[in-house]
Amino acid sequence: MPTITLSGLAKSYGGGDYAVRNLDLTVPDGAFMCLLGPSGCGKTTTLRMIAGLEQPTAGTITVGDRVLDSVERGRYVPPEKREMGLVFQNYALWPHLSVRENVEFGLRMRKVPAARRRARAEEALQMVHVDGAMDRYPSQLSGGQQQRVALARMLAVDPAVLLLDEPLSNLDARLRLEMRAELKRIHEESGATIVFVTHDQLEALTMATHVAVMDEGELQQLAPPMEMYARPANRFVAEFVGSPPMAIVDVGPSPAGLAGSLLRFVKGRVVTCAPSAIGIRPEALRLGAPPVSAWSEPAQVEAVLPAGSTWTVRLRVLDTELYAVSYTPVDAVPGDTVTCWTEQLHLFDADGSRMAAWDAAGAYA
């Protein structure tokens, strides 16, 4: 499978507003790349430029050694000649065609012989576990089944690259979970290069081999999912990736309260670091007796929010609201005073870039 390379890619719709600006991104051979970010960040525009549905204002798109777009050279390859499969958010199935006929459609357009077309459609439907509904029509299927048929139609033509534009957003929670597992299995079995657009960080963290976080048309960080979670490149990534989001406390010129407490702790251990902001992940904030290596402060419990396997606790610490996530039952009620502590802090400089992080083992870059 080919490597996708985006070089200096930009897209403007006029008036000086850029949906994507100066994007350099490489999707490695066989990777499952998630483009992650809030609505309007440029991720779908990027996917549509890769697919050929949008033409760049500047830059180059290369797949393997084949140039698909080059504004400088006046090169543009139309979508039907890019050998890519695209799945939309709304499935886009033909209502008057059966499931089998929908899956065969792309093969028919390529003039594949009928016997081969039928065999390939059945193989693709078996891959997504909808082979028992070949003769039904889309209106007779559930949303999850329709999504699987759309995937099978894409897989049937055996594209070099799979492009998925928020294909799970219309499904309920259970079906989304099933389809995440299916997509991961399909990727592992096929070894295809996949570019997946989503605003759902859980989808990105659970499925992707690489995650590219975008904001306002610019790439913020490209990394494997767990590395991005553990070491966010800047404040935007730190606050966007994680639920509940990381709490970031601005230090300021004369820090007091929680900011002062955190800064005094950091300076006592990371003497070369002068952060402008300090972050705490809710998952890293604990309740109870702290170890001697940890930062700690008294906290008032404001709410305990059980969620089955976890408990989220809203705390008031030195007049600042913090959240803690516990994986064991919380023996506290609103109004109680407890000790909160952590052995992991994230440090950011004045422009929001990550400086370092601190844990009980010491500072690390």
UniProtKB/TrEMBL annotation:
One of its GO terms (molecular function) is ATP binding. The keyword Lipid metabolism does not apply. InterPro entries: AAA+_ATPase, ABC_transporter-like_ATP-bd, ABC_transporter-like_CS, ABC_transpr_MalK/UgpC-like, Mo/tungstate-bd_C_term_dom, NA-bd_OB-fold, P-loop_NTPase. Keywords: ATP-binding, Cell membrane, Membrane, Nucleotide-binding, Translocase, Transport. Gene3D superfamilies: 2.40.50.100, Nucleic acid-binding proteins, P-loop containing nucleotide triphosphate hydrolases. It comes from the Bacteria. Residues 4-241 form the ABC transporter domain. The keyword Endoplasmic reticulum does not apply. This is ABC transporter ATP-binding protein. It comes from Streptosporangium fragile.
